[in-house]
Amino acid sequence: MVQNVSLSGGLYNLEAIEIQANRVGDKGPFTRQNLNKQQLQKENLGADVPYILQWTPSMVVTSDAGTGIGYTGMRLRGSDQTRVNVTLNGVPVNDAESQNVFWVDMPDLMGSVNNIQIQRGAGTSTNGAGAFGGTVSINTADVRVNPYIDIAATVGAFNTKKLNVNSGTGLINDRYTIDARYSTISSDGFVDRASANLNSLFFSAARLSSRSSLRLNILSGKETTYQAWNGVPESKISGDKTALSSHYSNNLGSIYKSMTDSVNLFHQTEDTIIILTTIR
Questions:
Q1: Top-tier CATH class for 31-139
Q2: Which residue, among 57, 81, 84, 52, has the nearest Cα to 68 in the 3D structure?
Q3: Are 40 and 138 in contact (CB under 8 A)?
Q4: Most buried of the four, 110, 218, 248, 274, by CB within 10 Å?
Q5: Is 153:184 a contact under the CB 8 Å cutoff?
């Protein structure tokens, strides 16, 4: 037996829904903190982004060199950088393989940042589990009406030096704008073999209208850092001279490349204290 069933239907038009997945609004049910350009530039003395954000709630930062220049990291609500979603103008910065963020490849990024939103907890992540600890949303978009050139220099301890040059055309024909930044940062570091020599370039061109904007951003960074992440050998701490000699032989040419490296390894702790006291 064949039975035909006929269904009647209707067409319903729904209003368009816009989903903004990178930023939380004023009424969003998430723990957040917004930092504007004035707040950020006040702390921008050459250190990487984590060190500038270190005074925000639930943020713990680390630095191999001890100065915030070179390899740095952050923890948000106890989660390391592999579980913190970092975006730059909405584009994920986390490494595709390790999910880590290598701030050393973006020296003086803060020199081009307009504002930052920190979301603690899952928030409005676009990258799923990568934001278990939180989200750091960085925005560089900034429109300045008049032409400008800003030059900033910083000199600090441990032979730390920074030079930053910002320049822009302002609005051209009320529609176009071009901005550029060049930065160079160098430091000997707080600990032995922690020097860093960093250079970065940022270029931005935009076409603006009353309803939309089209922007091209180019960010380039070059870093030359020494080796400061292996720490002190256990045999050095325990005073085992035989094991220390074996460690030195196994790593000669890799970790220990110069006469200074060798002398530092076998130098007595008491003598080092005397030298430091003399310098002070």
A1: mainly beta
A2: 52
A3: no
A4: 110
A5: no
Across the chain, mean pLDDT equals 81
pLDDT digits (tens, 9 = 90+) for 122-174: 766 555 555 778 889 899 878 888 899 999 898 988 899 999 999 999 889 88
pTM of the complete model: 0.71
Q: Could you tell me the residue ranges of all domains in the chain?
A: 31-139, 148-225, 234-279
Report how far apart, in Å, the C-alpha atoms of 221 and of each of 35, 50, 96, 188, 227 are.
Answer: 24, 17, 19, 19, 19
By the 10 Å C-beta count (0-12 exposed, 13-18 middle, 19+ buried), 233 is classed as: middle
Q: Helices (DSSP H) in 187-266: which residue ranges? A: 234-238, 241-251, 259-266
> Which amino acid is residue 156, in one-letter code?
G
